[in-house]
Design a protein that fits this description.
heterodimer, A: alpha/beta, 8-stranded parallel sheet, B: alpha+beta, 6-stranded antiparallel sheet, 4 helices
C-alpha cells in the first residue's frame, strides 16, 4: 500500500499505477513527505493525492487540511477544495478525468466511488485545489494535509511560495467553452422529464451552474441558443409579436429571468473569482429569427430585423447590461438543407451575400449606444480572402480555424488596426494526450496575437461518459454531476490544467504592449524550443484556389505548426515559474 | 390515427403543389465539387423560392403541425434520394427533426423507402406511417411534366400514436 502526492501535470494509469506520460518519466516524482508549490496571489495551485492499495477493493478514507502559516499571515484551510478522480476507459487504459467534488474539506469518502462502476481502478486519486486569495502576503507558507485511507494515515507537508505578484480578476485571454442549446437537458434526468423546464427556472439554474463553473475556471460558457434549423430554444429570445413595421418585442420576462443574472454578474456571487457580467453572449438573431426566412431578400425582412435589434439595444441600455459583447452570428451550415448559405465557415464566394444583412443593420445601429453589439464571423476557409476585405471593417469579432489562421500571420496587425477581436477555433484534447495538447493554447494566444480560443463543443459528454466519453473527451470540458447527486456540472482534470495555464497567460498578458512582453515571449519560445516563426505555418499552394475546392485530402497534408511535439506537460509549470521570477524581479507588483 | 388527417393534408398538398416549381427543384442544387456529402452548393434563387414555398405550405394549416421537405431522386438511380430543401422545424414543435427510420442522418442521400419509390414510380401520392409519425409523399413535376422530386409533408406525433401498419392508398 502506498500513499503519496504528485503534481498537477501528470496522471497515473488506473489499473497499473504507472505514469501515463511515460516518455517524461525523468520529470515525474512521487512525493512521500510533501510537496512544494509556487504561485502568485489570486490564483489556484493544484496537486494530487494518490492512494495505491495494490488491489481493487473499496476503502473508506478522509482528508483533512490545515491552514498554511507564514510570518505575514495565514491562508485558511477553507481555501482548499478536493475532488475524487473518476477513471474512464480509454483504449487499454483507465484514465482519470471527471472530478467529483467533495462537499467540504475533511469529508469522508469511499474509494473507488462506485465499486460496481464501469472501471475498477487499482489507483485511487484525489485532485486538490488551493486558492491563494488576492490579499495574501508574499512569502513562504507551510501547512499540511492529513490523509487516512485503508488503514494508513499520513500527514504531508505543503510548502507554498507566494510571489509578490497578483493575477488580475478579469481575463485578458479567453478560453471559450462553446456549446449548443439544449445539450444540457438530456444529461440531467430532472430536466429531461420536465416539459416546463424553460419556464419554471429549472433549466436556467442548471445552465447558470455551467456559467459559474466556467467563470471559476477562467473560462467562458458560451451557449448558442438556436440550431441549424433556426429554431430558438425557449428562453433564448424574448417574445415578439406583429409583422413588418408592426413587429416588436412584447414580453422580455422569461428572457430577463434567464439572462439577467448573467448580464449583471449576480450569477457569479460567492465564487473565489469576483463576479462579472458574462463577457460574450450570442444573440438569437439567425436566418429565421426574428423574421421568417420566407421574407429573405425582401424589405420586410430588413424591417423586422431592424425593429427587433432596436428593441434589443434599447432594452439592454435600460437594464444597464452594457458590459457584455452581444454577438450577431449566423451559425448556419447549408449541409443541413435548411438554408442555402453557410453563415459559419463560409467556403463558397456566393455565400458572402448573406453578410449584406450586416451591412443593412450597420446603418441602423445608434453610434451613441453604450450597448456592446457586434457582428461575428467564423471565417476559417475564407479567412485569407476576408481579413483584408470590406468584412474586416464591418465585422468586429472573428473566430478562425486554428490551422488555417497560422497561414496568415500578416492578418494579425491588420485586424488589430481595425480594433477587431481575433480568436482561433480549437478543440479540447483526447484525454489520452498529455495536458500540453490543451495548455499550449494560452501560450499560442500570447505568441500569435489572438486573444481567445473557442473550444467548439464543451458539453458533448456522450451517453456513456462514465465509461468512455464521446471522442475520448474531445467534446467535454465538464461532465454532468447527476450520477453523483449534483444537479449541475462537475469539472474535468483537463479544464483544471487549462485554468492553471490560463492563469499564467493572463498574468503574462498584463505586460502586453510593454517593453517586457518580448522578454516574456522569449521565455515561452525557449521552453517550447522554438523561435517566434515556429508558431506559424507555411501557406500551402492550394490557398490560391477558391476555398470550396480545398478538399479534405489537401487539408490533411497541409503544413501545421506543432510547437508542442515531444514536449513535457510540465512545460506549463516551468514557464509559470520563470514568468513569476521575472515579474517579481522586475518589481512588477501587478 | 393519422388516417383522419388524410383529407386535410391532401388539401394542403393540393394548394402547395400549385406553387412548387419542379424546374427550380431540379436547378436548386449545383454539382458537388467533390464526393463529400457535406460539399453542397445551391443556386440561391431556386433554393430560396422553394424554401419560401415550403414555409408557406406549412402555414396553410398550422394546426396540422406539418413539416415540409423536398426530396430529389439521384439522377439515373431513383432508389436513392436526397433532401434538397427543408422547411421549418418550428412548424412541428420543439425537439429534433425525426426522420423515418433510416441509418443515415436526415440531410444526406439515402435509400428511398418503398413508399417513396412507389410515389416516384406511379406518380401518385403515398402515405408512409412510421413509429412516431407519418409522411405523405406527393410527386412534384417539372414543366415537362416529369417527376422532378417528392414533396414530403410530415407530421410528428410525440405521443407515439402512429400505427406500425403501413396504410397505402390515394391520400
Amino acid at each position: 500500500m502506498q500513499l503519496y502526492l504528485i503534481d498537477e501535470f501528470f496522471r497515473l494509469e488506473g489499473a497499473t499505477g504507472e505514469l501515463l506520460e511515460q516518455e517524461f518519466a525523468d520529470e515525474f516524482s512521487r512525493h512521500g513527505d510533501g510537496i512544494r508549490l509556487e504561485c502568485c496571489k489570486n490564483e489556484y495551485v493544484s496537486f494530487q493525492l494518490i492512494y495505491d492499495p495494490e488491489n481493487s477493493e473499496a476503502d473508506d478514507g478522509s482528508i483533512g487540511f490545515e491552514a498554511l502559516q507564514s510570518d505575514h499571515g495565514s491562508i485558511p484551510a477553507s481555501c482548499y477544495s478536493a475532488y475524487i478522480e473518476w477513471f474512464h476507459t480509454i483504449g487499454d487504459n483507465l484514465i482519470p478525468d471527471a472530478l467529483v467534488p467533495m462537499a467540504a474539506p475533511g469529508q469522508a469518502f469511499r474509494l473507488p466511488l462506485s465499486p460496481d462502476g464501469p472501471a475498477k481502478p487499482r489507483i485511487r486519486a484525489l485532485w486538490v485545489d488551493l486558492f491563494v486569495p488576492k490579499g495574501t502576503g508574499a512569502g513562504a507558507y507551510t501547512g499540511g494535509i492529513t490523509a487516512s485511507v485503508g488503514g494508513i494515515t499520513r500527514r504531508f507537508t505543503i510548502q507554498l511560495q507566494v510571489r509578490n505578484v497578483t493575477l488580475t480578476d478579469d481575463s485578458l485571454i479567453f478560453a471559450d467553452m462553446n456549446n449548443y442549446a439544449d445539450s444540457l437537458s438530456p444529461a440531467f434526468p430532472a430536466l429531461a422529464s420536465n416539459p416546463y423546464r424553460y419556464d419554471d427556472g429549472s433549466y436556467a439554474r442548471v445552465e447558470q451552474a455551467f456559467h459559474r463553473i466556467s467563470h471559476d475556471h477562467r473560462c467562458i460558457f458560451h451557449n448558442l441558443g438556436y440550431d441549424h434549423a433556426g429554431y430558438v430554444i425557449p428562453g433564448y429570445a424574448p417574445e415578439i409579436t406583429g409583422e413588418g413595421k408592426q413587429m416588436r418585442v412584447c414580453d422580455w420576462e422569461r428572457f430577463d429571468r434567464h439572462f439577467g443574472p448573467l448580464l449583471d454578474g449576480t450569477a457569479f456571487e460567492g465564487l473565489n473569482r469576483p463576479g462579472r457580467p458574462i463577457p460574450y453572449m450570442y444573440l438569437p438573431f439567425n436566418f429565421d429569427w426574428p423574421s421568417g426566412y420566407e421574407k429573405w431578400g425582401r424589405k420586410g425582412y430588413r424591417t423586422e430585423y431592424r425593429r427587433i435589434l432596436a428593441d434589443f439595444l434599447a432594452h439592454f441600455e435600460q437594464k444597464g447590461w452594457t458590459n457584455t459583447r452581444l454577438e450577431l452570428f449566423l451559425n448556419h451550415k447549408k449541409r443541413y438543407r435548411m438554408y442555402p448559405y453557410d453563415g459559419d465557415e463560409t467556403r463558397f464566394e456566393g455565400d458572402e451575400a448573406l453578410f449584406d444583412i450586416y451591412q443593412d443593420l450597420n446603418g441602423t445601429l445608434p453610434d451613441a449606444s453604450p450597448v456592446k453589439f457586434l457582428f461575428r464571423m467564423d471565417s476559417s476557409w475564407s479567412y485569407g480572402r476576408h481579413f483584408n476585405s470590406r468584412f474586416a471593417d464591418l465585422v468586429k469579432m472573428w473566430v478562425v480555424n486554428g490551422t488555417i489562421f497560422l497561414w496568415y500571420p500578416e492578418s494579425v496587425a491588420l485586424m488589430k488596426q481595425k480594433g477587431n477581436i481575433l480568436w482561433n477555433y480549437g478543440g479540447l484534447n483526447d484525454m489520452g494526450d498529455s495536458h500540453l495538447s490543451l495548455t499550449v493554447w494560452p501560450f499560442r494566444c500570447i505568441m500569435t496575437g489572438i486573444t481567445g480560443v473557442t473550444f467548439w463543443n464543451a458539453t458533448g459528454f456522450g451517453s456513456d461518459w462514465l465509461h468512455t466519453p464521446l471522442e475520448n473527451g474531445r467534446q467535454a470540458a465538464f461532465y454532468p454531476g447527476s450520477p453523483f447527486g449534483c444537479e449541475g456540472p462537475i469539472p474535468s482534470i483537463r479544464v483544471k490544467a487549462l485554468r492553471n495555464a490560463m492563469q499564467t497567460a493572463d498574468l503574462a498578458m498584463t505586460l502586453n504592449a510593454t517593453e517586457w512582453m518580448p522578454l516574456i515571449q522569449e521565455i515561452i519560445n525557449r521552453h517550447f524550443g522554438t523561435g517566434s516563426e515556429g508558431w506559424w505555418s507555411d501557406r500551402p499552394a492550394f490557398t490560391d484556389d477558391p476555398p470550396h475546392t480545398w478538399t479534405g485530402a489537401k487539408l490533411s497534408v497541409a503544413p501545421r505548426a506543432n510547437v508542442k511535439a515531444g514536449l513535457s506537460p510540465a512545460v506549463a509549470g516551468r514557464i509559470k515559474r520563470e514568468v513569476l521570477d521575472c515579474m517579481e524581479g522586475w518589481g512588477l507588483n501587478v | 390515427m393519422f388516417e383522419q388527417y388524410a383529407a386535410e393534408v391532401a388539401d394542403v398538398a393540393r394548394i402547395g403543389l400549385l406553387f412548387l416549381d419542379g424546374d427550380a427543384l431540379e436547378q436548386a442544387q449545383r454539382e458537388h465539387a467533390s464526393a463529400d456529402q457535406d460539399d453542397i452548393d445551391y443556386e440561391y434563387a431556386s433554393f430560396n423560392s422553394l424554401k419560401a414555398t415550403l414555409l408557406r405550405i406549412e402555414r396553410i394549416r398550422p394546426d396540422l403541425r406539418l413539416f415540409a421537405a423536398l426530396w430529389q431522386p439521384q439522377a439515373g438511380n431513383p432508389t436513392v434520394v436526397a433532401p434538397v430543401v427543408c422547411g421549418s422545424k418550428k412548424s412541428c414543435g420543439a425537439g429534433p427533426i425525426h426522420w423515418p427510420p433510416s441509418p443515415a442522418p436526415y440531410w444526406v442521400a439515402q435509400p428511398a423507402n418503398p413508399d417513396m419509390r412507389k410515389a416516384i414510380h406511379t406518380g401518385e401520392p403515398v402515405l408512409y406511417l412510421w413509429p412516431g409519425g407519418a409522411s405523405w409523399y406527393y410527386p412534384v413535376r417539372n414543366s415537362d411534366f416529369e417527376i422532378a422530386g417528392l414533396l414530403e409533408l410530415r407530421r410528428f406525433d410525440p405521443d407515439g400514436e402512429a400505427s406500425a401498419v403501413v396504410w397505402r392508398g390515394i391520400v
